[in-house]
Amino acid sequence: NAGVTQTPKFQVLKTGQSMTLQCAQDMNHNSMYWYRQDPGMGLRLIYYSASEGTTDKGEVPNGYNVSRLNKREFSLRLESAAPSQTSVYFCASRVPGGSSYEQYFGPGTRLTVT
Amino acid sequence: GDSVTQMEGPVTLSEEAFLTINCTYTATGYPSLFWYVQYPGEGLQLLLKATKADDKGSNKGFEATYRKETTSFHLEKGSVQVSDSAVYFCALSDISGGYSTLTFGKGTMLLVSP
Question: Is B84 helix (H, G, I), strand (E, B) or coil?
């Protein structure tokens, strides 16, 4: 049981390049999330997917697109990277049902845009 | 909207000292509250949670009590260890449009010296 996995762990892009960050979970969770973490800003929600086939914008969606490929996988795409997108990106998934709504996080992708 | 405010760091302590990290929140409903911990180079791990007023969450010697009257969820530990050095995030869950999301504080770095 690997939990939430993310690839790649590190990436350097030039301004204008595109890339896709991959996320997968093997816990049979319905909901999945993408966050970015910046110094002094905490974690901010980019997009989330409540279930397979649905996606919704979070707090900071501009410049990103997502795909919920199936129940396990949720990818984040940067079509034209900008230096402002330099950040650490975390994927998370949520335990289905229950009342506490806790999330489980992947190890993160550290992205630098030059 | 919902928000979480936690004390700024870094908090520097000697081993075996008492720890308090303050967290207050603003929410329209009755959220669940969480403390997550992030060790260097890693993703976030759930440390403890509380789902209703007066609940006490506890784990690994850390405790926090959900205080609705003061809208607070302060993290405490009686005797910190060097291995507790990490960034601690307070968070609350909310339901928006039928979907749950987490709102995070900006994080508090804890540095424990021998």
Answer: helix
E strand or H helix at B12? strand B11-14
pLDDT along chain A (114 residues), means of 10: 91 97 94 92 91 91 95 96 97 77 90 97
Is A67 exposed, middle or buried (CB count within 10 Å of its CB: 0-12, 13-18, 19+)?
Answer: middle
- Residue in chain A lying closest to B1 (CA): A59
B-chain CB neighbours of A101 within 8 Å are 32, 93, 95, 100, 102
Nearest-CA distance A38 → chain B (Å) = 9
Q: How many CA atoms lie within 13 Å of A17's alpha carbon, on the beta-carbon side?
A: 13
pLDDT of residue B81: 97
